[in-house]
Structure formats: C-alpha cells, structure tokens
Amino acid sequence: MTFPEILDRVGSMGPFQYLHVTLLALPILGMANHNLLQIFTATTPAHHCRPPPNTSAGPWVLPMGPNGEPEKCLRFVHLPNTSLPNDTQGATEPCLDGWVYNATRDTIVTEWNLVCSSGKLKEMAQSIFMAGILIGGLVLGELSDRFGRKPILTCSYLLLAASGSGTAFSPTLPFYIVFRFLTGFSISGIVLSTVILNVEWVPTWMRAISSTAFGYCYTTGQFILSGLAYAIPQWRWLQLTVSVPYFIFSLLSWWIPESIRWMVLNGKFSKALKTLQHVAAFNGKKEEGEKLSLEELKFNLQKDISLAKIKYGITDLFRIPILRHMTLCLSLAWFSTGFAYYSLAMGVEEFGVNLYILQIIFGGVDIPAKFITILSISYLGRHITQAFMLLLAGGAILALIFVPSDMQILRTALAVFGKGCLSGSFSCLFLYTSELYPTVVRQTGMGINNLWARVGSMLAPLVKITGEVKPFIPNVIYGTMAILGGSAAFFLPETRNRPLPETIEDVQNWRHKGKARKQEPEAEKASQRIPLKPCGPQ
C-alpha cells in the first residue's frame, strides 16, 4: 500500500484538507504586500532643487530642462549680493539644500532623499530584499529537509512579522535594508514549506486546483495592497499594517500537521500514525484510522523507510544525470520567469498611468491568466503550458521595443499581457517542480530553483541601467531570456496524472517508460511490414 492509498483510507479530500489548504492559503494573501511593497513605499515623486536660503522659490531660480520643466538635480549657482539668473544661462551646481517634492504620500524616497545621485539606492534596497529571498531558499530548504516543514514554516511566519515590523521603525536606510533582507529571507521559508505541505496532503487530482488557488490568493493580495496603499499614505504605517498579521499566522500554523512523508523518512512512526488517525477522525473516518497500526504503517511504507538511509544534498542535483538534466532546465525556466516578471511588476511607474489603477490592472490580469493556466496544465500538460507561457511573455516584451513611448495604452496592454503570462508561468512552475523532484530531494530542489528566480529578480533592476546606452536594450535582454526559458521547458518530462516520485529510481523509470512508449509505435510499424518476394524463378 502506497502513501496515496493510505491517504484515501483516512480521507484524501475531506474537511481536513479544506481546512489545511485554507490555513496555508491565508498567509499567501500578504505575500504580494511584501514582494511589491516598494512600488508604493519607494515611489519617486516629481521633485526639484530647493532654492538657496533667503531667496524666493520661483522657476527662475532653477535651470530649465529640454522639456521645459525645472531640472531635478541641478540649480543655478547663487552668490551673495548678486542677482539670480532669470533665464536658462548660468553656472549650475547640485542640490546642496535638498529637494522640494510634489508628493501626496510619504515614502522612503522623500524621507531619505533617494533621488539624483542617491536614486540607485532605492533599486539596491529592492535587490537586497530579493537577495534575502535567494539566500533563504538555499538555507531554509536544507533546514526544512532536516528539521521538518512545519517548524520552518512557523519560524518563517514569526521572522516575517518581526522583521517587517522592524522595517517600519527603521531610523536610517541601512537599518531599513537589513530588515528588508530578513523579510525576504523569511518569505522563502513560507513559500517552500507551503508548496510542499500542499502537494503532500492533497490527492493527485487536486494538486493543480489547490496550487492555482494559492496563486489566486496572491492575486487578491495585489488588490489588497493597492487598497491599503491608497488608504495609508504614510510608508511606515503601511509597512506595519502588512507585517503584524503574520504574528497571528504563526499561531494558526500550530493546526497545520507535519508532512507524513517527512516523518516516515525520519523514523517518527508513532507521530505519523497519530497524525493519520487525527486526520481520519477529522474527516469522519475514525474507524478506518483506528484500524491503522504501527506495524502496518511500517510494512506498507517500507520503501519510504529505506529512503531515510540515503541522504541527498544540493550536489546530488548536479551529480546524478537525470536530476542534473531537470535542474538545468528548471533553473533556466525559474530564472527567466523571475527576471522578466519583476522587470514588469516593479516598472509600474514607467507606463505613465495612475499608480493605483495600474497596480489593480496588473493584479487583475492574474485572474484569467491563472484560470487559463489551470485548464492548460490539467488538459494539455505541464511542460507544454510552461513553455508557451514563457514564449508568449518573451514575445510581448520584445514587442514593446517597436511601440513608441507616446502610445501608452498599447504599451500598457502588452505589459499587462506579458505580466499575466509570467504570473501563469510562476503558478505552473511551483506545481511542476514539486512534481518532478522525488521526495528525497524535493525541498532541496525547490530551494535551488527558487534561488534562480530570485537571482533573476535581483538582476532585473540592474539591467534597466543599460537603457542609458540604448533604450531598447533592457527589453531585448528580458524578452530573450523569457524565450530561452520557454524553450528549456520542452526538454522536461510530463507529470500530469502521475503519482509523486519517492525515489530517484522512480524518476528514472519515467524516462524509460517514455522511451518505451515511443518505441512501441515503431515496433508496430516494423511488424506490419511484409517483405515482398521477387517475381519469377529463383
């Protein structure tokens, strides 16, 4: 008897699973609040140099730029007892007395003057946040395999609540950056443990639905973020508002059970049996749960128990050929998705549309995108869906090169379409990756691939700097990488309607069965060929 069959006995899709998925999904509502928070807390408003002391603040104090507006980072040199220039001529100097902001909300940019020469510090803060997610994926993936999914999940909730609240009270930019790094670190633990606990506690046919439901929770979080940002113009209060709920989520996580597979692999049979009996009682199958015994559990899961003697790590993902092939293809898909996604998601200001409205549109496109994704992965398959989502996104980004900047509606439509495809790509990747890797390296595999998505999201803001050379270069890079990632997905095996692999041998059997199926039609054709006998005497 396999684990899915044991799960059927205690109830594979009953009240327990609905409560389990709900408890895992609620915190996902707040993920967008932290991932995309700097869209609102680090908005750069219109600004210009503050005039020198004891002078009138008029347009004549400032040099005028080519567009007829005051320069943002320069002002005329003002000498005492001399008249100020009243035209565009005269020596200029940096903004020595700060800036005047035309702002309706309080942001880290206006508080710490992150403009002009300091403007790149804002992008650096976002990159370091992504670096926290990257390192968290490496560290917490290993710790989760060693100490269990549930402890890492609970600790990650607490760390996110504490570091997010600490960010709200940061006295200086360096403190802000450190707390944002810790916030990103904790997000990796939440995402990785949530994905694993989801796929290991629901039946095979329900995985795609529950994974897409998590995606919709993230989408709903984008709507919530826009509403909160509109209602709370002070960045510190906004930061605190989106962080405090995770203290509550850490308490709710005590009702989330540990992974049965992890307990079996680590020899915790008594605890696994009690958990299964609790699930059976919760699902109204108490008698079935009581029939389970420790000896039966050990006997039926003997294959899983033997896996506990074999330890795998990150190096095995590249040492073993079948895992190396999957890891390289998945890494490229994850990197290109994170790279292209955050180039669009964090570039909302560039499209010249109302920030709140555009963020709602960017979030709203996820609804049809994820619905189409779930239909596609359920009927067409995982690797076809993954490939075409990235190929379409890459095409949309490359199309932006040929659309003039004054055609804002068309540019926004292409960006929204590309972002929707990339959102669908993320939804597919989380499910697809968890189904491809066997239990013995699943969490480690999720961690290493999630790392590549964060590398991409870290590099995305830096690539925008190449736009100073030629404006079209960033979109060429973003679009090309998305197309390469989509192409790599074609080389991955299909997992639709297949049970989760437990061992590396299970994954290898997929390849052998796939080759056998390809060879069968050829064998049939060969058997149908009848050799023609020559006419006439021999």
From TrEMBL:
GO cellular component labels: apical plasma membrane; basolateral plasma membrane; endomembrane system
Region annotation (Disordered) ranges: 507-538
A biological-process GO annotation: monoatomic ion transport
TM regions (residue ranges): 124-140, 175-201, 213-232, 238-256, 326-344, 356-380, 387-403
InterPro entries noted in UniProt: MFS_dom (IPR020846), MFS_sugar_transport-like (IPR005828), MFS_trans_sf (IPR036259), Orgcat_transp/SVOP (IPR004749), Sugar_transporter_CS (IPR005829)
One Gene Ontology term of the molecular function aspect: organic cation transmembrane transporter activity
Ranges of biased composition (kind: Basic and acidic residues): 517-527
UniProtKB keywords: Ion transport, Membrane, Transmembrane, Transmembrane helix, Transport
Membrane topology: Multi-pass membrane protein
Occurrences of domain Major facilitator superfamily (MFS) profile (ranges): 83-497
Chief location: membrane
Subcellular location(s) per record: Endomembrane system
NCBIfam families: 2A0119
PANTHER family: SOLUTE CARRIER FAMILY 22 MEMBER
Family, similarity comment: Belongs to the major facilitator (TC 2.A.1) superfamily. Organic cation transporter (TC 2.A.1.19) family.
Protein name per UniProt: Solute carrier family 22 member 8
